[in-house]
Amino acid sequence: MERPAKRRAPDDAGQNRAPTSLTRSISPPGPSKLKRARISEPAAQDEEETSSEAEDKAQDDDDETSSEAEDDTPLRASSSKPTSTEATKPKQDKPGPTTQKVFQSPFQLTKIIPIHTKHDYPPEYNIETVSLHDLLSDPLISELWEFNYLHDIDFLMSHLDPDVRHLVQVHVVHGFWKKEDANRLALQEQASQYENVTLHAAFMPEMFGTHHSKMMILLRRDDTAQVVIHTANMIARDWGGMTQAVWRSPMLPLLKKSTTPTTAERGNNDGQQGKLEIGSGERFKVDFLNYLLSYEKRRPTCRGIIEELRKYDFSAVRGALVGSVPGRHGIHGHDDGSETLWGWAAMKQALKAVPIQAGKAKAEIAIQVSSIATLGPTDNWLSGTLFEAFCAGKVTTTQSSQSDSARSVGSKMMGFLGKSQQLGAASKPGFKVIFPTADEIRSSLDGYNSGGSIHTKISSAQQKKQLLYLKPMFYHWGNEPPPSPPPPGPSMVKTGGTEGSTEVAVGVMNAGRNRAAPHIKTYIRYSNLISDTTNNVDIEWALLTSANLSKQAWGEAPSSSGEMRIASYELGVLVWPALFTQGAVMRGTFLTDTPTPSSSMRPEEAAAAAVVGLRLPYSLPLRKYGQDEIPWVAAASYDEPDWRGVYWRD
Questions:
Q1: The one catalytic residue among 151, 212, 230, 476
Q2: Per the annotation, does 521 bind a ligand?
Q3: Is 214 marked as binding a ligand?
Q4: Annotation marks residue 159 as catalytic
Q5: Is 116 a catalytic residue?
Q6: Helix (H, G, I), strand (E, B) or coil at 263
Q7: What is the pLDDT of residues 206-219, one digit of tens each?
Q8: Nearest 5°: phi and psi at 56?
Q9: For residue 72, which of 267, 325, 298, 336 has the smallest C-alpha distance?
Q10: pLDDT of 327-357, one tens digit each?
Q11: Fewer CB under 10 Å: which end of the chain, C or N?
């Protein structure tokens, strides 16, 4: 278990960014030389993650009161249809530049603020990033609900505007249910210093579960609300030198008064429920409120914020909520898809709404996490349950979601493929697991300290068998050549280079986070992850989440009765190109949130109605583990010092 750091990261200034789209004029690409990525490398920091073997959690009845609050019935999606935004192109009598809409990345990286390095972090690596100060310093914030695993209330309060800090109603939701838990006692001590801070202990029915969701809800004095789902614990280290990311909803206005309230406003089922499209803002609201309602099973926890959020309009949200709540749950839901599912079943349900283009290059799904739990001596659960869910999709044999010109280009390209190749393009994707090695932890911004937040185990017989089937899938977090031997003695020299070094191999698409150890968790489906060496990375869908690679987070394999068991609270957001406008494509971006015109754009990308950026946290192409390399193990001892001269001994 990780404890809140005592050292604080300095406040960083910045401006809130609302989701925006741009337009640009482009011409069809011609022959071009291969572009090389900028030679530079990101900083690395360590992230905290829950241990796969949590301590036993026998629920303390003395700490809870049973509650049968009204309106606790899970919501069903009502029958209103979501609005869609469509990019328009001017009619042209002859070939020429077309107007293409550009959307910034729905996920933002957090700003890197190193604690131990002597030099400032390269400013180009922090372009279009977001800090906690950016999220919380608005003086219009009147109420804040903060959900997390680890909390430092002093650190949280320090980022509120000082003029209104004592006026903001702050609610902290945690999972420390035992009265004698040291983390709970520390929270109570900190909260007692603030009259406007209220603590809420989440209901934790599962023995090995944790309250691992990372989310904030902001209510503002201008009658707007905002939901922020992210990957960082509310402690200084996580918001300093580690790689983290944030998804922010648009500012949500109050609903206009209506004589016929929707199901989400009513909070009950009255026979008028129907299917709302997965990915629509209205469906997001239903699933989000159902997530919050899961806290109400044993005692009032989130009742106040649930009632407030019913009043707000979520229609501008683009994304599908993928959450986990502890307990036993069905895996199928209603035939019309209107029921909120959890864990891998929720992911599978959402992916069935995501268009997957046949005829593209072989797909790859990159799983990047900070903790890998004990999954079993065979890959039955990993391949048969989790990976099977990730393979879901709405496979299309034509590019129906693209513009007419893009479909024309796609049809011509399909003509060059044989029938077997076309069918093969829709086959199951390959899987890659991105996880740091000990060398990457040693050279990270916080050195070995960052490794305390990154977990896997390989010591027991079962764990060694697990390593055998995972090893072929392992890829490095950072894209650097293997480090050179360290200098003798506790030198303040980075293993493989000097402190503050930002070198990156030529030809690498640099994300600027090689040395910022990953606490972020992403699951991304690419169509050209390994083979493409241009700055064009096609993305079919992407998930930002708190969920690591574990049964506790995603859920066990289904039972014979069609139920699965989940131990922890988790929360994430799934996005894909068609959410933003008809005919859009999604493209990976590096060192920026905004996709930029490129002479190396493929014809189908140039013909797309819109390009959506997705800020990637790691550099490409991925670098596979060497034959003798193994993942970082926090429980092991390492005789080689990190770049700060610190040793890691068990």
A1: 212
A2: yes
A3: yes
A4: no
A5: no
A6: helix
A7: 989 999 999 999 99
A8: -60, 140
A9: 267
A10: 999 998 775 657 899 999 999 999 999 999 8
A11: C
